[in-house]
Amino acid sequence: MSVPLHAGTESCVGAEKGEITPVLEKQADELVSRYPISKRSAVLPLLHLWQETFGYIGPRGVEWIARKLSLQEIQVLELVTFYPWFRQQPYGKFHFRVCRTLPCALGGSGKTFAALQKLMNLKADGHEGAMISEDGRFSLEYSECLASCGTAPVVLRNDEFYEKVDEKRATELVAGCQ
Amino acid sequence: MSNCISIPMNPWNHDVAKDEKDLVDVQIDGVWLQMPRGLNVVEAAHRAKKFIPHYCYHPKLSVVGNCRMCLFEMGTPKMGPDRKPILGADGKPEIAWMPRPQIGCATGITPGMGIRTDSPLVKDCRNGVMEFLLINHPLDCTICDQAGECKLQEFSVEYGTGESRFVENKVKKPKNVDLGERIVLDDERCILCSRCVRFSSEVTKDNVLGFVNRGSYSTLTAYPGKRFDNDYSLNTVDICPVGALTSKDFRFQMRVWFLKESKSICTSCGTGCNVTIGSREGKVHRLTPRENEAVNSAWMCDYGRLNFHYLEDKERLQNPLTKAAGEHFPAPWGDALNRAAEGLRKVQPSEIAVVASARMTNEELFVLKRWMDELGVTLVDTVNRPEQGDQFLRSADGNPNTRGAELLGLSHGGRKLSTWGGEIAAGRMKALLVLGGEDVVAAGIPAACLAQLEILIASAILPNATTRVAHVILPGAGFAEKSGSMVNVHGRLQRFSRSIAPPGQAREEWMILRDLREIVTGGNSLHSIEDIWKSMATVIPVFAGLSWGKIGDQGVDLTHSLPAEATAK
Ligand code: SF4
Ligand code: SF4
Ligand code: FES
Ligand code: FES
To answer: What is the rounded distance in angstroms from the CA atom of residue B436 to the CA atom of residue B477?
Structure first.
């Protein structure tokens, strides 16, 4: 879970870098046009688009999407914080998600997680949000059921899916990050 | 609906049926009743004198159905093969009860519907909901402002078990969050009903509040960098069913069960929002809106709500004062009034002018008018108080009783008043009464000019530039310290009753004027507000047939009887 945000106390993170290109604008407008009845329904597709483009969703993305859909920023932020898939800070170049729901937990995902954490040289305990390596190369977090319980423990590396990831397999996965 | 509705029509208003005459049969806890079709089940139960507990439901906001406290058992008529309801021995439809409970707040009644608000299933549901709601609750009732009027407390007692089976760790959330200029939030107390979020999106439409995160970590917040500061923000403190949203002004000041409540109206602008004054031992602690669909619905502005602290201003005038050798000295009421009367007797009635105030009550103005008529004084006007106003409740008229002053013929919209400086300078105007705390210096008559008057009498509750040069100062009472009635900008006559005593020797102004009248003209009647009304009802056509009692707590719409020119604006 991410830290609750509060007005006037802490803001999320610095604005996402990078240009908002005409191509991005066009993609966004196309997504919005799919929801002729309620523009608001385009929030999720736009959040995905933004995250795929900039790597994470900071205040700049929230405000851009809110403006596009004539919403208030808080209405966008609510969703960003609701879905664990959306992130408010940049992740590593290789982002690992280790399933910790019961079947995977029984299958040893804790050990997998610990192995990955050691290999990536990450310090925090990993139970609250993602950990990122200092060089920005790796990041690691727990996730809930990835829908392959029969082959526990399972791991997502960016968008690739790996089954039966024991400590040995974890080492290979990290080594394979090029 | 009458034309005195001042607030934009609320699209929700679940407590008002679409058509009060289109009735259907419903069975509520075994009793068959007739209720308007489609009426919200929480409201239908309420009309049947049954209570369905609820948190997220508010009659003036959209329905979200997120708290589940209003679960009830619902049934529909059993249908025969002919698609007609099967009737029981009593001639009423037999009811087939649904195995699962429904939420009352999102259900409208239909013909033949069965509603159970107190069955074992319903009790069980409420019990379960309460247990869940309390899982992460900090239980800091002992230091919580809401204690005593908290729905979580009340429903725990009424529907809860009194003990928790929760042995895990509670989720910690932010406390003492500075949400805006006037509001502090305690997130641990929040039950996520979203009433405040809906208020800010549906009523004030500034939409800064929302929930971030999810599950037990869901947290109410304003968007980072935004403040919940609009002029209606404190209404969320009222509608928050728990102690999550607290008013900085009232926070930690007083236990609510010590408050004496009295029905009043706000006098900070021409709208006259209906309010409840909460006071204790002669001190006003808070104003809260009192529902009146014809005026303010369930809301009021923050400005009006907090505009009562002047009642305890250290500068309050507590004694009648008379001026001798250029200085003010306290005097007994008799002496001060005699001095005033003496001064008035020395001049011709045509040389006397009165600055009445559109902040005064109808009763005060009427006693004044009586006295002026008896004496033959005709020069009178009020001070205008134009304000910005907003599109919601705040009126562009900063005076609460302009219409009343007009009805009684005591206001000329400040037009006359603007010439009086010249009249005084020319020596044609020799006595001036400035009532209701008005300040004629601020209204454009220089103090040096006032100094030329033979007598200047001022009644006020706080010193101002006019009282400073007055020969006689008569200490009056603030709105919470007196009884009276006013007519709001929409032509609604409303009354308020004294909640606390004025400080020291200060008195309600109608009494001051009554006593002054007796000394000056010998007029001796109008000994109570009721007396005044008896007389007013015969003299003022618009008030015909009315009495103090008939005004009631919700006021009376006068628009049908108001003179045309007064209605036109
Ligand atoms: S702060 Fe109060 S009104 Fe707002 S969601 Fe929480 S409990 Fe409901
Ligand atoms: S809108 Fe006017 S009458 Fe209503 S609370 Fe505000 S100041 Fe008072
Ligand atoms: S529990 Fe890990 S994939 Fe389902
Ligand atoms: S009052 Fe019906 S669900 Fe909250």
So the answer is: 9
Q: Could you tell me which of B446, B471, B448 has the C-alpha nearest to residue B458?
A: B471
Residues in chain B: 569
| Mean pLDDT (whole number) for B213-229 | 94
| Interface probe with A: pick from B223, B228, B229, most Cβ of A within 10 Å | B223
Answer for the pair B192, B218: CB distance below 8 angstroms, yes or no. yes
Going across the sheet that includes B260-265, the strands are B260-265, B274-280, B283-289
Q: Please, what are the domains in chain B? A: 23-132 (3.10.20.740), 142-151+165-252 (3.30.70.20), 321-479+506-528 (3.40.50.740)
Residues in chain B within 8 Å Cβ distance of A73 = 223, 226
Beta bridge partners of B180: B183
CA B83, CA B154: separation in Å to the nearest integer?
44
Q: Report CA-CA distances (Å) from B57 to B46, B106, B136, B221.
A: 13, 9, 21, 20
- How far does residue B76's CA lie from ligand 4's centre (Å)? 21
Burial B281-294 (b: 16+ CB within 10 A, else e): eeebbbbbbbebbb
pLDDT digits (tens, 9 = 90+) for B403-445: 999 999 999 988 999 999 999 999 999 999 999 999 999 999 9
- The reply to whether residue B214 touches residue A81, judged by beta carbons under 8 angstroms, is yes
pLDDT tens for each residue of A127-161: 567 888 888 899 999 999 999 999 999 999 998 99
Q: What is the pLDDT of residues A18-59, one digit of tens each?
A: 889 999 999 999 999 999 999 999 999 999 999 999 989 999
Nearest to B200 by CA among B105, B15, B61: B61
Sequence-distant (6+) residues with CB within 8 A of B452 are B424, B425, B427
Q: What is the pLDDT of residues B96-110, one digit of tens each?
A: 999 999 999 999 999
Measured between beta carbons, the chain B residues lying within 8 angstroms of A88 are none
Task: List, as one string, the DSSP characters of B193-242.
Answer: --HHHHIIIIIS----EEEES-GGG-EEEEPTT-----TTTTHHHHH-SS
Domains of chain A by start residue, with CATH: 2-80 (no CATH), 94-175 (3.40.30.10)
CA of A72 to the centre of ligand 2 (A): 28
Q: Locate the chain A residue with the closest alpha carbon to B222.
A: A7
Which of B352, B343, B325 shows the shortest CA–CA distance to B424?
B352
The strand ranges marked E within B396-470 are: 431-434, 455-460
DSSP B392: S
For A162, the 3-state DSSP assignment is strand
Please tell me the distance from the alpha carbon of residue B42 to that of residue B413, in angstroms, as a whole number.
48
Both tokens assigned to B452:
């030329």
B52 closest CA partner among B3, B146, B123, B113: B123
Are B470 and B458 spatial neighbours (Cβ–Cβ below 8 Å)?
A: yes
Is the CB of B209 inside 8 Å of chain A's CB atoms? yes
Q: What is the Å distance from ligand 4's center to B65 Cα?
A: 4
Task: Please indicate whether, in this complex, the C-beta atoms of A74 and B174 are within 8 angstroms of each other.
Answer: no
Please report, as a single letter, which amino acid is at residue B125.
C
Q: Does B230 contact chain A (CB < 8 Å)?
A: no
Q: Collapse the DSSP code of B366 into the 3-class scheme (helix H, G, I; strand E, B; otherwise coil) and give the result.
A: helix
**Global pTM value:** 0.90
State the ligand closest to the CA atom of B41.
Answer: 4
Return the closest-CA partner of residue B198 out of A74, A62, A133. Answer: A74
Q: Give the mean pLDDT of B109-117.
A: 96
Query: What is the spatial distance between Cα B493 and Cα B539, in angstroms, rounded to a whole number?
Result: 16
A83–chain B nearest CA distance, Å? 8
Residue positions counted in chain A: 178
Three-class DSSP category at B535? helix
First to last CA, chain B: 20
Taking CA–CA distances from A3, the nearest residue in chain B reads B213
